[in-house]
Design goal:
With about 140 residues, this protein is α+β, with helices and mostly antiparallel strands. The protein has one domain (about 1-140). About 30% of the residues lie in helices and about 35% in strands. It has four helices and seven strands; from the N terminus they run H-E-E-H-E-H-E-E-E-E-H. It has helices at about 1-5, 30-45, 60-70, 130-140, and strands at about 15-20, 25, 50, 70-85, 90-100, 110-115, 125-130. The chain has a seven-stranded antiparallel beta sheet. Helix 2 packs antiparallel against helix 4 (about 130-140). It is globular and about 35 Å long.
Length: about 140
């Protein structure tokens, strides 16, 4: 599955990664190898999605998350298809992963929440119960 996600990109260099914290947007600068590792981790985390929350998140709520909480956003250089083991395929061109706040990941339960956009964010958040080591690798890369 990892090759499938990497093949969807025109290049890893076209990938944009941002951190939002208390209304401030910062570019996350990763080396080419770190971007590859991040994409591999995202593929692993996304493939483990096993639930869709019974909650509708509209673009206004996404803006609140970016303004009030800490979140990671990945903007792909073209539409990408990510595959889950239990819920099928999702076509998207961006992901938002809340790191703090109501919809944030839960480190104690190894649970991470994804908001998908194509191009706008709208719909139900996706929940992944993931491997503890994978979650730790993810946080080490993006949450410094």
């Amino acid at each position: 599955m990892i090759n499938s996600i990497l093949c969807k990109y025109q290049s890893k260099e076209g990938l944009e990664i941002y951190i939002y914290e208390n209304g401030n947007k910062s570019v996350v600068k990763l080396s080419s190898s770190e971007k590859s590792e991040l994409l591999n981790i995202i593929d692993e985390l996304f493939s483990d999605i096993d639930d869709e929350l019974r909650l509708y998140v509209d673009p206004e709520r996404v803006e609140e998350i970016k303004k009030d909480d800490k979140a990671l956003e990945i903007v792909f250089d073209k539409e990408t298809e990510l595959i889950t083991k239990n819920r099928g395929k999702y076509k998207l061109d961006r992901l938002l992963i809340p790191l703090t706040g109501e919809l944030s990941l839960n480190k104690n339960e190894n649970n991470i929440i994804f908001l998908t956009g194509n191009p706008d964010y709208a719909g139900s958040p996706l929940s992944s119960n993931c491997n503890e080591n994978t979650l730790k690798r993810f946080l080490k890369l993006v949450d410094n």
